[in-house]
Each structure stands twice: as C-alpha cells, then as structure tokens.
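Async update (no meeting this week)

Hi team, since we skipped the sync, here's where things stand on the single-chain job. The sequence we agreed to prioritize is pasted below, unchanged from the tracker. I ran it this morning and attached the output directly underneath so nobody has to dig for it. Comments welcome in thread, and please keep replies under the output.
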Amino acid sequence: MLFSTALVGFFYAFPGSFEMARDLEVRVGVSLLLLSVVTWSVAPRLPGAWWLDVCIVAAGAVAAVAVAEVPHSEGQLTIGIGILALGMFAAYSRPSWLLLVDVGACVVLFLLATLSNPLLSTPFLALVWCVIIVGTSYAFSLMVTRLRDQALHDNLTGLLNRHALALLAPPVVAGARRAHADVTVCLVDLDRFKSYNDSQGHLAGDALLVTAADAWTATARDSDLVVRWGGDEIVVVLVGASTTAAHDLQARALATFEATRPEGWAHAWTCGSTQLGLSESLEHAIARADADLLTGKRTRLPNQRD
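Output:
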C-alpha cells in the first residue's frame, strides 16, 4: 500500500500524456496512505486475522473508486495490475478459501467500477482481466501452500520440523499465556532404536518412525504441536494440558503405537515431560524434558547404549 501511495505520487508529479483529475489522485493517495497506516499499526493489535481480510478488501475498494473515475482505459488496466498484486499478497498470507473471498470481492468491485465508467473498448475485456486476477492468485496460492507444507513438514513422517516449531510455537505459547493455560512440553525417544535400525535395516527403521509419528498424530489435539526433533526423537507441545493430562495423552499415544508397531520390534518409547514456565523459553523447557527423559531411560533401560 505504501508502494502504491508512492506510485500515485509519482504519477501526480509526472502525469505525462495522461492527465488525470488532481483531486482523484490526491484522494486515492491519501486513502492508500491511511489504509497502510491502519494495516501496519492498528490492525495487527486486533484479535484474530480477520483484520487482514478487511484491509485487503478495503484496498480493493479504493482501487475500484479510482477505476470508476479514471479518465482513460490504460489507467483502468494499470489499476487492475495493482489488484493482481493485491491478490498475490492475499495468496501468500491467507488460506485458499479466504483468498477466493477476498480477491472475489476485489474483482467484483473492479468489474462494477469498469461498467460504471465504460472506457474500455468492451466490458468483456474487464471480465477477462478479472478471470486472470482470480486464476493467477489462486494458482499462486496453491503453489505457496505446497511450498509452505514442504518447508514446515518432515518429508518422512509428515510431522512438523524444527523450523516449523520455531515459527509456530511463539504465537501458540503467547496465546496460552494470555489465556492463563498450562503448556506442557514432552520429548519422546524410541527405545533401542539404533539396534533395531542396524539389525533390520534403514527402511524398517523409517517404517517404525512413521508408526510412532502416526500414533501421536492420531492422539494429539488440533491445538498441539507434534514435531520431529531429530533422529528418533519427537517433541510434543501440549497447550492447555497439565503434566498429569500430558501423561494420560502420552499413555494413549503409546497404546496406539504398541497396537500398530511392526513385527520384530518389542520395545516402546521413553517420554520426558515438563511444564513450561511463565517466562521460560521453549528451548529451555525442551532441555528440561530431555533431562527427564534421560532419567527415565536410565531407570527403565539401565544397559541401553543407544
């Protein structure tokens, strides 16, 4: 929006052969500037992300007003390019279904504005441009979604990876703290996994990891974060769960795992857990859960070397 404001200012200073009404340029520039200030400073303080959808549609409304009053067809199509850029932003930042709502509202406003100011050689051209905007934005949204999934998930187990934990955990933890809800961190490690991997082969070890990941995925709630921490270790961040509730959840996941584990594997896993402190970092809590896990390993498997 700031870039669009600067672009309007540029055309105001250097109109070239396309003279526009000065008051239109001023109104559009001021509207975009105010909208950018609201989007930057006020809207992010509101709960939820609906404010972003409102700002996207509001920017589309400003563009539609400009389309309705711009005195040449080239200006209409240029503003249409701006709406396409707005759609690409929406595709990056919003889910695909919300993208269609946001961009759909913008292109409807754009189409109505072109019909109210029929400078194009045919209104059909505006309709084609709207189809291009929606189609391109949706295709970009699908591509962004696929790339985001690949970047945030482990390709073997389908669990979140450490990069995803670094991105997703801060807002989850902050929301739990605002709600005064407990956050319990669990670190899970498969027992005697290295021996099984060496004796049965890496493909069998991969299958075992997938089985363990599926057990946690089936047991965890939508608000929980289940992450492949590395090797055969899984980190689980349980929101709104005390350590007692976390132990119950871990027991259910373990029962699911033991019922589906592959033949040749006669062991379970060890789980260390701790409750996240009010001002404690997640990394520090994971380290404490790791210490609890090592204590459990020494108690349950005193002769384990892997």
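Quick observations from my side:
The chain is about 65% helix and 10% strand.
The chain has a mean pLDDT of 85.
Reply here if anything looks off.
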